[in-house]
Amino acid sequence: MRNAFRVALAGLPLTLSSCASMYFPPAPNAPLLTQKGEFSGGAQVNFQGNFTAQAAYAATNHLGIIGTASFLHTDKKKKVLDHDFGELGVGYFTRLGDKRVIEAYAGYGFGTSHRTERTREGLVTDRRDARLEKYFVQVNYSSKDSKTVHLLQRDWPISYGTALRVSYMNMYDFQLNNQPGPSETNILLEPITWTRVGLFGPVQFQFISGSNFGLRHRKYMKAANSVFNFGLIFSVGGQEGRR
Predict the structure, then answer these.
(1) Which one in 41, 86, 114, 121 has a CA-CA gap of 20 to 30 Å to 151?
(2) Is residue 162 within 8 Å of 143, Cβ to Cβ?
């Protein structure tokens, strides 16, 4: 079942990117908490240069708090992007059997986005500025399936999981070439799968793949990069055997 789901996700378009997009979403935060006092943190990046830092804390044996901050700042010959976005959420987590964890979170996000298009000669042709806010719900699930790969004279534990986030996005205070522009909203579906490889102690390498797609056709308020991230995560204070 897990393999079929991952194949289905791989077949989805990686992004609905557009030169006009104002939103660059971070990957869903999937800490997979197991007990009170556990802390999870990590950092990851994608090929567009969108850097994301995430943290989570188990306030009780079933109540978790998550936070995400993402930053994208590029200055290319024909395009300048400045995008800063943060998310906070709270939710429920529990174990299913000896190795699986399921989590459900709801939260709020906010940020700013600035985009400048210009010619090769440096002449500005388009300038867009906007504020963003987001309301989201998501479910994270770790698979019971796991395996170990023997490579470079050592064993590397590998685990898998999935997450689905549904987000209501609102773009407001929009300025188009320093003139008031139209506000836009959208509903985004963001299914992902992740693979984690144990490196040493509580540190794991994480690879995330997935999609973003909107339920409404919008000119500016749409996802602009794929959910394709890689980085490092760590967890301390949790129960063993959950991943």
Answers:
(1) 41
(2) yes
Strand duo 63-75 + 179-180: pairing: unpaired
User: Do the beta carbons of residue 214 and residue 11 sit within 8 Å?
Assistant: no
Q: How far is CA 140 from CA 32, 96, 234, in A?
A: 7, 12, 17
SS3 180: strand
pLDDT in tens, 175-218: 999 999 999 999 999 999 999 999 998 999 999 998 888 999 99
Residue 49 makes CB contacts below 8 A (sequence gap 6+) with: 72, 73, 74
Q: Provide the 8-state DSSP code for 33.
A: -
Whether the CB-CB separation of 84 and 68 falls below 8 Å is answered with: no
* pTM as predicted: 0.86
Are the beta carbons of 190 and 214 closer than 8 angstroms? no
- Half-sphere exposure of 155 toward its Cβ, with a 13 Å CA cutoff? 5
